[in-house]
Structure formats: C-alpha cells, structure tokens
Amino acid sequence: YARTGTKIGGITIPMGAAFAAYSASNAQTVWNFAETDKQKIGSAAFLREEDPNDKTVDFMLDINKGTDFLDELTVAFDNTASSMNDFKNDAPKIENPGVDFYTKSSDNIQLAFDTRQYAEGTIIPVGIKKATAGDYSISVAEWSNMPTGYTATLVDNYKNVSTPLNSTATYNFSIDSKPESQGEKRFYILLGKLST
Hints:
Layout: E1 6-8, E2 11-13, E3 59-65, E4 68-77, E5 91-92, E6 100-104, E7 110-116, E8 123-129, E9 134-143, E10 150-156, E11 161-164, E12 170-175, E13 183-193
Parallel strand pairs: 4-7
Antiparallel strand pairs: 1-2, 3-4, 3-9, 5-7, 6-7, 6-8, 8-13, 9-12, 10-11, 10-13
C-alpha cells in the first residue's frame, strides 16, 4: 500500500521505497536470478493487479519534524489476523537511514504494516528510533474502515498525554537528550470502544 509515487496499473511503489520478499516457510532461502530473468519494458505495464482480498488500511500515522516527512506506520484490522508477526498480513520495518517509526508485534518484531484483530483494551507499542532533539508531530495521514463504535488513542507515557485518533488528529511533542523521550516505551496505541 502506498500513497505517493508512480502508479502502474492498480499498484503504486512510492519514490524512494522498496519491497521485500520472504519465504513462506520462514526458512533460509536463496533466490538466484539469471540475466535471462530480467525483462526490458518499453512502456508502463501491470506489475500486479489489485487483489480484492488485500488488507485495507484502517489508519496510517506519519511522523514529521516541522514540515519534513520522516516516516509512516500503518495499522489494519482483520478478524483472522494475529498480534504476532505474520508474513501474509504484516510488513516488517526496514530500517531507514534517518528516523524509524513503527509498531511492535506481540513477538517483538518491528512492523511498518501491522495487521491484527481489533480487541478492546489492546495495546499496540509504537517505536521511534534515531530521532535527534527537536519538535515533532505524529498525525493521522489516513483514517478509513475503522470498526464502527471503536476507538484508537495515542498515549505518550513520557508526558502522560492521551490523544484520541481520528481523521484530523495531530499530536505535537519534543524529543530531548533523555533516552526515554524516544524508543519503544514512550508511545503506544490503545484500542477501545465508544461508551454508550
């Protein structure tokens, strides 16, 4: 899933992005590509058409420093998904040269795309690494398909502030020289239900 870049058919690969391939068996796999496997394409062609079974995004969060976009994370909900890393539904976080922004699966894997079941009271750890001191913001870049009657709240443990997430939510914060101002214990997303 991507919001920017060059669209080819029904897919998009964002500028500066990459994709990763994993073995279904999770075993060490060696893939060999011969020169004859390469193809020269003179015009745009379908790489892969959209699959109606692809996971839909429930929300996407961006981290910015001033007006500079740094990274994003995506959360999707699926009743058949697990909170553990699942190569069919999740995308592990590939380290950036700059700031990394990600969620963590229940088996401690950093994720750029996190698919899990929506359960009231679930805590989704959020990590920020390699950020320099300064002012930042976390904002909702996309908000769609959230289950009706449910909520997601961004919690800042360092400042003891909770921010309900919605289509226009932005949380401004600072990172300083203290290690606890970033890392994997400052932020989390709390899933809940609207009170009736």
